[in-house]
Amino acid sequence: MKFKEVEILSNEEIQNGIYKMVVKEEENIKAGQFYMLKCKNKLLQRPISICEKEGENLIFLYAVVGEGTRDFSIMKKGEKITLTGPLGNGFDLEFNLDKVALVGGGIGIAPMLQVAKEIKNKNGAKQLDLYAGFRDEVYLLDEFKEYVDEINISTNTGSVGHKGFVTDLLKPEEYDLVLCCGPEIMMKKVVEICKEKDTKVFISMEKHMACGVGACLVCTCKTKEGFKRTCKDGPVFDGNYVEF
C-alpha cells in the first residue's frame, strides 16, 4: 500500500452520473481491491473499486452520489489526485473451475471487469458469464465482450434486456462459482439462491469508509464470527460467512 499524488489522464462522464477516471499507477493490483481517493485541500477520502488496470493506466468507474464523488467529477485532465492503495484482499482467482458467473448490480459491475480479465488470462474457465443489472441505462458492457462468453442484462424499467432484477436471470446450479458485487439487497438474494443450489459464492461488500486500513472501524460488517472490517478483512467475503 502506498500514499501518493498522481496525475489524472482522463475523467469523462460515460453515462448520466457515471464517470470513468484514468490515472497513472505503477503498483500491481489484484481484482477486487480498491483505493482511497482524495481531492487536494479536502479532508475526507472516498473508497473506489478498481475497474481495470491496463499497463500503468489504472481505471476507476464511479457514480456521483454525494459531495466527495461530485468533487471527483469536476476534476480535469492534468490535475493531481491523491491515492492510497491498493487496499483490501480482493478475489481469490487461483482456481480451476469449468463454469463461473459474475454478477454486478449498478456501479457494482465496475470491479467485475478486472475479475473477468484476470480469469480469462489466468485460468481460462470453460464458461464465464456476466449477469449485469441496472435501473435504466446500461454502461461498461462493451468492455466485457472479449473476456466473457455471455452477457445477461436486466433493467428495472425494461429499457434493455429483462425487465426486473438480475437475480431473476441467474441459475446458480449451472455454475461452480458465483462472484458478486452490487447493492446489499441484491447480494443477499444472490447468496440465498446460491445456498439453495449449493453453489460457492463470494461477494464484495460496499461500505462507507474513512481510513481504508482498518483503524477507524466505520466499515464493519456482521459475519458468523462477529463484526469484521470491510476494508481490512474484506471487501471480498465468502457469501455464506456474511450475515445480512
Helix content: 10-25%
Shape, principal axes of CA atoms: globular
Question: Could you give the order of strands across the largest sheet?
Answer: 10-9-8-7-11-12-15
Provide the low-confidence segments as ranges: none
Q: If you consult CATH, what is the topology of the largest domain?
A: Rossmann fold
- The CATH class of the largest domain turns out to be Alpha Beta
Q: How many DSSP-defined strands?
A: 15
Number of helices: 5
Query: In the CATH hierarchy, what is the superfamily of the largest domain?
Result: Nucleotide-binding domain of ferredoxin-NADP reductase (FNR) module
What's the CATH architecture name of the largest domain? 3-Layer(aba) Sandwich
Write down the domain tally.
2
Strand content: 35-45%
Provide mean pLDDT, rounded: 92
The value of Rg in angstroms is 17 Å
Distance between the termini: 29 Å
Topology as H/E string? EEEEEHEEHEHEEEHEEEHE
How would you characterize the largest beta sheet? Answer: 7 strands, mixed
What is the fold's blueprint, element by element?
Elements: E1 2-15, E2 18-24, E3 34-38, E4 46-54, E5 57-63, H1 67-73, E6 80-87, E7 99-105, H2 110-122, E8 127-134, H3 141-144, E9 150-155, E10 162-163, E11 177-181, H4 184-196, E12 200-204, E13 220-223, E14 226-229, H5 230-233, E15 236-238
Parallel strand pairs: 7-8, 7-11, 8-9, 9-10, 11-12
Antiparallel strand pairs: 1-2, 1-6, 2-5, 3-4, 3-6, 4-5, 12-15, 13-14
